[in-house]
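To: structure desk
From: M.T.
Subject: fold request, one chain
Message: Could you run this one when you get a chance? Sequence is below, nothing fancy, just the single chain.
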Amino acid sequence: MFQALLLSLAFAALPPAEVETIVGDRLVGELVELNDESLVLKVGTESRTIKSSLVLEIRQPVPVVPLPPGPRVELLDGSRLSCKEVTVGRDRARLTLHSGAETQLPTNRVASIRLGESSPALDDAWNSLKDRESKNDLLVVRKDDVLDFLPGVAGEFGEKITFLVDGEELPVSRDRVYGVVYRKRNIAAAKVTCQLRLATGDSLQALGATLADGEYKIRLAGNVELKIPADQVAALDFSAGKVRYLSQMEPRDKKLVPLFDLPRDVERDRSVLGSPLTLGGKVYSRGLGIFPQTRLKYRIGGEFARFRAVAGIDDAAPRLKTSVHLTISGDGKPLYDAEIVPADAPRTIDLDVTGVRELDLLVDFGEDQLNIGDFLDLADAKLTK
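Reply: Done. Structure tokens follow.
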């Protein structure tokens, strides 16, 4: 009763959703409907329909919910679910979430079940066991802050856990077990179209997601469907396969000229000062911080249609009379050329890179030829299909 009350209070008020599209639009409103073809967002009194293929991410700032203790299940695809109860039979695993939602999935989709409490030391030890190469299942027990294990074959998982060791079946009381790590199974990966982040901190790798009447229906690998109330979903990320951020990519070639023999590098997802990328008062979570006299070449293989970014001198840089020159080329052909000074408003870059195999970025001194405070941010720099 208390757990249900806690969850209902935490999820009572549903804040507006923010929808980011592949063309850089950010719309805020009430998410009314979502399916494989489109979503409907109510913005004020107007309903907007957006094709699902254009959606990068849906964010909903729901409050984080501290859950009571219970089993934590991880699936082969990396999905993580906190549960009120878990049982595993010969062919099916049955999961009851703290929200009351129930689902069943093939047993061979389960990667691990963790029953014991979490701490930094225990987390490290548990993750090490999950990464371990083993042809056996591992029955894990805890001794203080140390985890030990017994290799064998895990069977049914209920009030007792059946474990086969050297041909002998051992029924082990559940309260004596910290968790079970299942041997790695060779199952073909399904095509994930959406990553969900829940208010509980759990995450799901979904093959699809639909929203109707305040409830999401989530399709998981193994022909599994899970129903989750909309007010328990913090974000849906549809960017897989649609977008690549430059900060996620390794340049094929990178050339930088040191400043007074001091080493320096391109900063990923932060400015060259080590602070968040900030332009015109807006903070960006993705992008590059770049010093002048830097050349970056990316092999993009003709796979993308647009290159988009916001360029400017970082807000934290000294407001000096300085500038940088930004040149962007595709397969040797100029696509963008601009002098950028601190007084400029952030510049939106949107380039057609259809068929381009190599993208070349050159950041150089501006007309002043000085290297004082000219810290370029190439914020939200991404390639889209």
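Reply (cont.): The first strand starts at residue 17 and ends at 21. Let me know if you need anything else for the meeting.
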